[in-house]
Write a sequence for this structure.
């Protein structure tokens, strides 16, 4: 089953007035991970996941929510400890989503802050394209960021992940370049982009687009003797002042991260 | 002539100290939480 471009519904954030609301970020993220993994067929609430864990005393671990979803929804997350950050980005760019644990202070202090005061261990769902679903990002009052399917800067997420406290009562950061994460299955089909010179020509000129916050901000012309690379599924991006463009994001090779027109891509 | 012997089994590496760490999320305490 694949559902290219599917994004789980944000609904209500973790602060929903339920008994464990302030403790439910991991359960909330797991509930949206279930939605994503099942292409919308399964939408448990954060409170439901909390109940399934049987934990009535505090925050929860990735292992607890992984067990809960496996037992009650038949959804098997791939939970990894001390996972290399580069692989995390590659996997999420390739079509998986992931519950990512981290230390909230860097996000709190950015424009994506979902709290004025909270800065401890937290969990968010990162969906393809580094679009983050933060259970605190409910816009509940002025100054609190509201989720809007926005891409977060990779450096911010990397710092969030690296500063995860793995020392319990004594702060001990995980360390740069590592993360604790639980991945959904990849429900995006694999795509391959191929750019080759036209017959009889030595080079092919093609557009390379810069995308910021899901909108095209600029385009340049590049030249190639020919290349192929894996890429994301096609998505339509707004381009203020121009016609919207269907683009793919290259995910391998030296052009990884660049956006080109979807006409060069095909499902494999 | 020599018999082929099974190689000596490699001992299991000791568990990584960090692998047993299971960080939990902290509680959000806000006026409106």
């Amino acid at each position: 089953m694949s559902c290219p471009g599917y994004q789980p519904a944000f609904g209500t954030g973790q602060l929903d007035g339920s008994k464990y609301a302030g403790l439910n970020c991991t359960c909330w993220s797991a509930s949206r991970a279930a939605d994503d993994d099942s292409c919308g067929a399964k939408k448990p609430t954060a409170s439901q996941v909390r109940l399934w864990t049987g934990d009535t005393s505090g925050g929860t671990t990735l292992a607890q929510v992984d067990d809960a979803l496996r037992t009650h929804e038949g959804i098997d997350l791939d939970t990894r400890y001390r996972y290399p950050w580069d692989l995390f980005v590659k996997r999420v760019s390739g079509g998986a989503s992931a519950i990512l644990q981290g230390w909230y202070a860097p996000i709190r202090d950015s424009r994506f802050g979902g709290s004025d005061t909270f800065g401890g261990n937290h969990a968010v769902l990162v969906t393809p394209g580094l679009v983050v679903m933060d259970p605190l990002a409910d816009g509940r009052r002025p100054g609190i960021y509201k989720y809007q399917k926005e891409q977060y800067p990779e450096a911010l997420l990397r710092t969030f992940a690296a500063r995860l406290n793995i020392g319990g009562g004594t702060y001990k950061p995980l360390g740069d370049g590592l993360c604790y994460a639980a991945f959904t299955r990849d429900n995006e089909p694999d795509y391959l982009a191929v750019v080759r010179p036209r017959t009889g020509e030595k080079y092919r000129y093609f557009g390379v687009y810069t995308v910021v916050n899901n909108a095209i901000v600029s385009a340049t012309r590049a030249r190639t003797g020919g290349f192929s690379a894996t890429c994301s599924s096609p998505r339509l991006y707004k381009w203020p002042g121009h016609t919207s463009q269907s683009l793919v994001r290259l995910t391998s090779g030296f052009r990884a991260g660049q956006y080109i027109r979807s006409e060069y891509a095909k499902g494999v | 002539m020599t018999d082929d012997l099974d190689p000596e089994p490699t001992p299991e590496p000791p568990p990584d100290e960090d692998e047993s760490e299971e960080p939990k999320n902290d509680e959000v305490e806000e006026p409106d939480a």
Notes: Chain B touches chain A at residues 16, 18-19, 21-30, 32-33 (CB under 8 Å).
